[in-house]
Amino acid sequence: MAPSASDAAAKASDVAAKAAQAVAGTSSSAKDFKKEAGAARVLGAGCAGIAELMVFHPVDTTAKRLMSNHGKVSISQLNSVIFRDHANASVPKRFLSLFPGLGYAAAYKILQRVYKYGGQPYARDYLAKNHGDSFDRAFGKGNGKAIMHATAGSLIGIGEIVILPLDVLKIKRQTNPEAFRGRGLFKIIADEGFGLYRGWGWTAARNAPGSFALFGGSAAAKEYFYKLKDYNAATWGQNFVASIAGASASLLVSAPLDVVKTRIQNRNFENPESGFRIVSNMVKHEGMTSFFKGLTPKLLMTGPKLVFSFWLAQTLIPAFNKLM
């Protein structure tokens, strides 16, 4: 029997409703993704890391020195805290003093960005292929996809401790150059060994929620604000707004543990201090607000650094993928 006009109209209405729902993004599934070429991921993330290093290394040094300073800092003390031995030098020399450990910083920053921004898509692909339905069932379509992106970021963030020694050396160069005492890179590695991984647990504890918030905040902006079914289809402007959302959430969530991590890493090699001892001393001598030291410069300066590199990576990876 041929379908009646009312049945045909009902089917047409149902198809139209589903199409409208898809356009609105509410049917975005965790198992739906477009895989980028591996070379595109490496190139996009690597270019983002290089650009970030060139523009923001002095900002990072300033934030690290403020976080490492014990006690309250008045406006009159800022110059000596930030520029240290070069506080009374000329402006060019003071500026150049904000580039200590640039070699370590270059190696660490580029490897970190390639690993994090280029590695998160691999973790996302694995979760989408093997557990996409589980995310959809647990959180609903759309929600599941955003949380899956955040979870992939968190897993990659924990694994970032592999390159922790480069971060340790970079921070010591920025905040405690006396720790080197004329020793070169290979001499330090031979002397310290696994001591360069000191604070790895605190680093993982800081990276897990921080990376979850970074990738989750960005995915949420694309999912709910822009209603994107394919996150790679975001324009540069949409990626910029999504990067602001992710970076802001990441910095706020990870700030307290970031202060502890920095203080563990900037100690002299022969005079280490446990994270729990540092936390205890901070609470006892500096108060709870000490866990948010450096947050303002991080939000004002390091925040844009993270936004800048994350935005470039999210924009360049799909662009390189199209070229390939």
Automatic annotation (TrEMBL):
Q: Where are the Solcar repeats?
A: 237-319
Q: What is a GO molecular function of this protein?
A: guanine nucleotide transmembrane transporter activity
Q: How does it sit in the membrane?
A: Multi-pass membrane protein
Q: Which PROSITE patterns match?
A: SOLCAR (PS50920)
In the UniProt record, which is one GO cellular component term? mitochondrial inner membrane
Please classify the protein's predominant subcellular localization into one broad category.
Answer: mitochondrion
Entry's Pfam families?
Mito_carr (PF00153)
State the similarity comment: Belongs to the mitochondrial carrier (TC 2.A.29) family.
Q: Matching PANTHER family, A to Z? A: MITOCHONDRIAL GTP/GDP CARRIER PROTEIN 1, MITOCHONDRIAL GTP_GDP CARRIER PROTEIN 1
Name the UniProt record assigns to this protein: Guanine nucleotide transporter
